[in-house]
Amino acid sequence: MLLLWMACNGGDEPSVLETVAQTESHYVPGLRCEAQVLRTEGNVPHIYARDREDLARAMGFTLARDRWFEMELASRLALGTVSELLGQDALESDMESRSSGMTHVADTILANLTPQQERIFDGFAEGVNAYILGVASEELDPPSELEIAAGLLGLEKPSDLMSPWDRRTVAGVGATVIYNLGYETGDVGRAY
């Protein structure tokens, strides 16, 4: 079991999760209480947290650790910024994303978030950023894709290819999912 931690001001009874052997722990800034990540068969993570905001932070950290490269590409695809990572060859993809409405969908998601959803999006981004900081400090292993890319690009560290996430980056991932689940380009003007 992975334990993500930050001081908690609660007096809860011990959890049944405390009977599971802890294999590692990491400090995730912003967590108000401990969050546990229990991995079952097939390395499937099950995340337990005190509230939705801590759950979002733990989920951001866990997903980034497992799938950072895919998440980063999904966000960049929606926001039309793949070429910032992959260079001139991805410029056509960026132009298509921007002209097809994917960036508009991400911005529409952002414009319609409730205050609670904003905190959840921010928490998720903070969890992703905690992973990025762990990679930069060499506490955590970098994504294998970045190890290869850093070598090919002559960069000193794979973390040089990682940039911090924010609420809009998270919305970009959501926009890619929405777009790929049947979004039609004629829907841009009707999306709310």
* Strand neighbour order, sheet with most strands: 2-1-3-4
Please state the overall shape, judged from the principal axes of the Cα atoms: globular
Low-confidence stretches: none
Query: Roughly what is the average pLDDT, rounded to an integer?
Result: 85
SSE pattern: EEEEHHHHHHH
Number of strands: 4
What is the first-to-last residue Cα distance? 40 Å
Q: Estimate what percentage of residues fall within beta strands.
A: 5-15%
Oligomer description = single chain
Number of helices: 7
Instruction: Give a quick account of the main beta sheet: strands, pairing sense, barrel closure.
Output: 4 strands, mixed
Estimate the helix proportion, in percent: 40-55%
Structural class: alpha+beta
Q: State Rg.
A: 18 Å
What's the SSE blueprint?
Layout: E1 2-5, E2 24-27, E3 35-40, E4 44-48, H1 52-79, H2 82-86, H3 91-100, H4 102-111, H5 115-136, H6 144-153, H7 167-180
Parallel strand pairs: 1-2
Antiparallel strand pairs: 1-3, 3-4
Account of the 3D structure:
The protein is an alpha+beta fold and 192 residues long. 52% of the residues lie in helices and 10% in strands. It has seven helices and four strands; from the N terminus they run ββββααααααα. A four-stranded mixed beta sheet has the order 2-1-3-4, with helices on one face. Helix 1 crosses helix 5 (115-136). The longest helix is centred in the middle third of the chain and has 28 residues, at 52-79. The radius of gyration is 18 Å and the shape is globular. The protein starts with a strand and ends in a 12-residue tail after the last helix. The mean pLDDT is 85.
